[in-house]
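Posting for a labmate who doesn't have an account.
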Amino acid sequence: MKRILIILIVFSVLSACAPASKSEFSEVVVEDNAQPYVSATKTTSVIETNQPQPTLTTTADTRPLPEDWQTWPIVPEVTATAREIYRKGVAMGNDPHAFSKVGDCQNVKQSFLGFFDHPDQYVLMSGIDQMQDTIDHFKGHFDRDGEATKYGFNAAAVLSPLWADPDVCLPDETPLECELRITRPTFVLISLEFWFEGRTSEVYERYMRQIIEYTISQGAVPILATKADNIEQDHSLNLTTAKLAYEYDLPLWNWWAAAQELSDAGMDKYRNDGFHISVAAWNIRSKTFLQTLDHLWKELSATG
């Protein structure tokens, strides 16, 4: 078997993903003038009248339940809501060649995706040939972090203007708003993994809803992601992410499931801190997200 080329693993990748100070966070509500988004899976009530009503046939929801998220596929299928958002984004003039990341240190370009903008650096990675057209299509967006991915970011930070780059972003603009305004992506990976004491899954969910709903309002398809670690000891963040993917009918890239096939479930046994993943895992993480982007883009662009 060909040996996977180890790419761009630098000391900064192995440094701790330190959370931002909790005292610097306040709950931020992202406002926009768009109408409330209704998922394609929602149903509407029928107003009773004296007239005979037609017989309504409901379609059974056969999607796997959030509680079974560990068995969800690594590469998600396209959802009806994703199709609706994609069509909306095209009509809004979003860039069909662009995707963005909303993430923490697990998503910086030095360790995640960056090498796909440099053909000589992934030449020995197996199974890439059939996705070369996707790499070419999104060229220039792999080796960039954008304004919503940074060391120490979490779900609160990307919603706070305190963390926006004043040299790039508008006054009072959050990192999320700034990135989506500048890039106008058709897809947005939302992968905010770091958990720390006092930041509960309920708080995480509240912030994630704001991120998801703002992303949808901008016509970009959110791609949610599970995480490899279980630093919170009960998988509560992965379960919450799966619940959100189910409720909003969005694609979920199940990185946790891919990591289970690796030694030590993808975790770094040398650091042994319960959070950092191994060098081998970095390459698989990039590859499985590329597979996800490849599948979603080809399906959605084919049907419009």
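Reply:
Got it, the structure tokens are right above this. Confidence is low (pLDDT under 50) at residues 1-16, 19-49.
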